[in-house]
């Protein structure tokens, strides 16, 4: 026999409804999840920033060290080039003096005096020396025009020359590592063979 419940479905018990409500409330809080994600991203970004900063400081330190080393090498090269130039100047002076003495066609004393005068003038060296009658033609090089003027003054003060004139001077275009001037001097010798003029003639003897 079929029974029909006209009262409807049975009402759920209060204990079951509370259990269902408690089950539906379980799970991660979205706000906490977002905050954790933000903190992780911020921590990663901060670590990356610190790493980049340390790398930047290391590169700057390496660059300063390389720059200092480059400056030291440039200074050492400059000193080496200066000493090498001085050595070449000295060797050139010695060679020219030896050649002049070996091929001397004029008075040895005069040639030695010129060589000593040039050696005594800083920054000047001799290339060729030619005797042309009463003139001595000197070709050489100097580190500045002021040193050429000093050489002319030193030659004039020797007492061997009546005049010392600068024929020409120009900067040597072939020398790239330093300033160098080529010059030609014409020195007129004093003729010491001429007899000195007497101060006065001796009085004639009276005839008795």
UniProtKB/TrEMBL annotation:
Pfam families in the record, alphabetically?
PilN
Query: Does the keyword section mention Nucleus?
Result: no
Q: Report if keyword Protein biosynthesis is assigned.
A: no
Keyword terms: Membrane, Transmembrane, Transmembrane helix
In terms of InterPro entries, this protein maps to: Extracell_DNA_Util/SecSys_Comp, PilN
For this protein, the parts annotated as crossing the membrane are 31-50
Name-wise, this protein is PilN domain-containing protein
The species this protein belongs to is Candidatus Korobacter versatilis
């Amino acid at each position: 026999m079929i029974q029909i419940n006209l009262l409807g479905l049975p009402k759920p018990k209060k204990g079951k409804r509370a259990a269902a409500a408690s089950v539906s409330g379980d799970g991660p809080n979205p706000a906490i999840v977002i905050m954790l994600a933000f903190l992780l991203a911020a921590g990663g970004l901060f670590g990356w920033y610190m790493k980049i900063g340390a790398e930047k400081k290391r590169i700057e330190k390496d660059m300063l060290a390389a720059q200092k080393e480059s400056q030291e090498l440039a200074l050492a090269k400059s000193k080496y080039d200066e000493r090498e130039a001085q050595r070449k100047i000295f060797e050139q002076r010695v060679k020219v003096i030896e050649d002049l003495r070996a091929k001397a066609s004029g008075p040895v004393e005069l040639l030695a005096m010129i060589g000593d005068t040039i050696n005594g003038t800083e920054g000047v060296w001799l290339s060729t020396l030619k005797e042309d009658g009463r003139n001595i033609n000197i070709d050489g090089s100097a580190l500045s025009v002021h040193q050429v003027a000093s050489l002319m003054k030193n030659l004039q003060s020797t007492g061997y020359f009546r005049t010392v004139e600068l024929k020409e001077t120009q900067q040597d275009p072939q020398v790239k590592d330093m300033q160098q001037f080529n010059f030609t001097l014409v020195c007129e010798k004093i003729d010491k063979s001429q007899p000195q003029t007497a101060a006065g003639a001796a009085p004639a003897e009276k005839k008795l």
